[in-house]
Amino acid sequence: MPSSPTLSWESRIDHYVKATGFPRNLFMGEDGRVVGTWIMGNDYRVKSTYYGGYPATYLRRIKALFPDKKRALHVFSGKVDLVTFPGDTVDINPAVSPTYLDDAQTLLTVPLDQYDIVLADPPYSVEDCEHYGTSMVKRNSVMRALQGLRSGTHVVWLDQVLPMYRKDAFAVEATIGMWKSTNHRFRGITIFRRL
Predict the structure, then answer these.
(1) Assign residue 61 a region: left if phi > 0, alpha if psi is -120 to 50, beta otherwise?
(2) Residue 16 parent element (H or E)
(3) Per residue in 59-103, pLDDT tens?
């Protein structure tokens, strides 16, 4: 799959504001990384109705940051909204009918070189795993498996933890704090680029 020219982060932020109508709350830091905060508001809807599903505007926001990406892979997909952000899915649970029934810690059946963006939203805690009927994942194992991505591929990681990663394999290009609303967990979005 040929690579497309990479948009600058300034262009991505401009497109995000224009496409979503949300405030310009992402900025270039002095270290060359994007920093910001998304306050998602009190819209408690989860379109998929799946436990732990993305907040109402999350996928639309990510899609607006990456208008150039054509092949998305949703890891820990559950019942992700593929209308808002089309792509293939990976999950260990056959009941959610993923494109690839696979363990995110190995991704043995997934042709990673075919994708130009990966969205990952792992279980955050043992309690979350009980809802999914799975065990906790080793985040560093997932990041090691994602080293099979081609250069330039972005990984959008939503979590309460920054996963361990190899600095010779991935660069952190953006960090976005995300509040859903009162009495909800704070989460961080880390956007990596495969080197």
Answers:
(1) alpha
(2) helix 9-20
(3) 999 999 999 999 999 998 888 999 999 999 999 989 999 999 999
Secondary structure of 138-151 in the HEC alphabet?
CHHHHHHHHHHCCC
- Residues 6 or more apart whose CB falls under 8 angstroms from that of 127 comprise none
Residues β-bridged to residue 174 = 34, 191
Closest alpha carbon to 46 in 79, 10, 1, 87: 79
* Residue 3 and residue 150 in contact, taking contact as beta carbons nearer than 8 Å: yes
Token pair 């979350």 in the structure block, residue: 128
Element (H, E) at 64: helix 58-65
pTM for this structure?
0.90
Phi, psi of 80 (to 5 degrees): -65, 150
